[in-house]
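Q: Give me the 3D complex with magnesium ion.
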Amino acid sequence: MRLMRVQVPEFRVLKNVDISFEPEYVPQVFPLGSLNGGGKSTLLQLIFVLLHCSAHQERHQFISNMLEHIGIPEGEISKRLAKFELLDGDEKIELEFTLCNDAYLRQLDIDPIFNKDMVSFDIFIKENELLSERTSLKDKLKQRFFSDILHGNEVVLTAEEQAESIEHDIEAIDKKIKINQPLISNISENLILKKQCHITTYACNGRAIGLLCHSSGLRKLVNDVKDTLTAASKKVFLTAPATQVYLFLNNTAKKSLFKKLNDKKSWSWRGAYDAKLNEAKKNLPNFLTYDIFAIDAVVALIEEARNQDFKALADTGTSGNSYQIIIEELNLLTLDKKIRLQFDENATIIGINFQTNDGIDIYPEDLSHGELKRLSIYVWLKFLSKDENIVLMDEIESGFHPDWQRHIVDDLVEWEASNQYILATHSYELCRGITPAHVKELPPNLLS
Ligand SMILES: Nc1ncnc2c1ncn2[C@@H]1O[C@H](COP(=O)(O)OP(=O)(O)OP(=O)(O)O)[C@@H](O)[C@H]1O
Ligand SMILES: [Mg+2]
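A: Here is the predicted complex, encoded as C-alpha cells.
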C-alpha cells in the first residue's frame, strides 16, 4: 500500500496541509521537513492513529485521546479532519475522515418514533461504557475470588450472594443495552445510506462527536471502507523516540512525562510515562520506539535465514545464501565490529556479541546509542512483512553522525525496498541522499 496524498485542513498546528507522495518516484523515500513545532510529529501521529486504529475497537481509545480537544465550529454540523489517497495494488482509494455533531445526525432520516433529543452520538459513548462495565463484571464473576464478608463473627454477605448480586447487575446492563439498540441500529442504517462508516465517538467539552469515514471513490460502500481500513491497519507503521509526546496517549499519561517522581533529591522521572507508553504498545502492534533492541529478535532473524538456506539445500541440493547476507548486513551496521554467535552444545544459537578488529569482545550493552538505534531500526524492518508497508519514521537522524545521516535513504531501501518511507527530519545530510522533489515540507517553507 502507498500513501499518495494527505490533506489536513486544520488539526492543532496543522493548517491547509496538502502533501503528495508520488507513487512513481524512485525510491519511495520522502523526507518531511519543517521548523521545530512545524507539525511533523503531529502529522505522522494523525496518519498513524487514523489508519492503524480505525478498524479495531480496542484501539479507538487512541483516536479519542488524539482528538480530545478537537471540536466543531459553532453553527456547523461537521468538520473535515483528514483526507487520504491510498494506492492498494492498482486501485486508488480515497478515505475522508469527518467529525460530526448531533445536529448532523438530526438532519438524517431517523425514524420519527425516536425522540429527537435522544438522537445523539452520546448513545454510542453510553453503549461503550455499558459494554466495558459488563466485561469487567463478567471478569469478576469468572475469577470467583469471593469469600463471605464478615462483621465480627457474623456473615453479612455470603460468597454466593455476592455472585448473585453481580449477575443481577449484568442483567440490568443487558436491559439498558437492549433499550438503546433500536436507536443505535437506526442511526447506523442512516449513516450507511450516506455511505458513512461510523468509526468511534469521543467527548469534547462535554459534547459527543462522531468520527465518520467515507470513500469519495465510485461505488465504495461502507463495507468497502471497512475492508480498506482493515487492510491499512496492517500496513501502516510508526517509529519514533521514546522521549516524544504521543498525542494518542491519555491526558494523565501525557502529563506524567513532565512530572518528577517523588524522590526530591534526584532528577528521576519518566517512570510513569514509560509504563503508560508500554501499556499502549500492547494494543498498537505497528508502533515502535527506537530504544528497543531485542537480542532475541536478532537471533530469530539469523535462525530464520539459516532455516531458509537449509530448505534451499533440501529443495535444490544447493544451500542458499540468506545466512551470509544477514551476517554481512549486520556487520556493516556496526562498522568496525563483527557479529559473533554464541552456541550451546546442541548448536542452538543462545546469544550474540561483537568483536572489534583488535579482537576485543563487545556485548550489546557496550554498544553506542547510535549503533543500537541503527540495529534497532534494521531488525524492526526485517521483522515487518515484506509487502509494501507505509513506514512513518520520526526524528530518524537524531544520534547519527552526518555520514550515517547521508546513508539513511540507501540503508532503508537496502534493508526493505518494498516499503514506502516518510521520514520526519531536520537533516540536510539525509535530504542530500535523495532528489529535491522527494523532499516535502510543512509551511512555513524552509527552502524558499
Ligand atoms: N491546539 C493547537 N493549536 C495550534 N498549535 C498547537 C496546538 N497544540 C499544539 N500546537 C503546537 O504544535 C507544535 C507541535 O508540533 P510537532 O511536535 O508536530 O512539531 P514538529 O514539527 O514535530 O517539531 P520538532 O521538529 O521540534 O519535533 C508545537 O509548537 C505546539 O505549540
Ligand atoms: Mg517532532
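A quick observation: Residues 2-106+196-234 form one domain.
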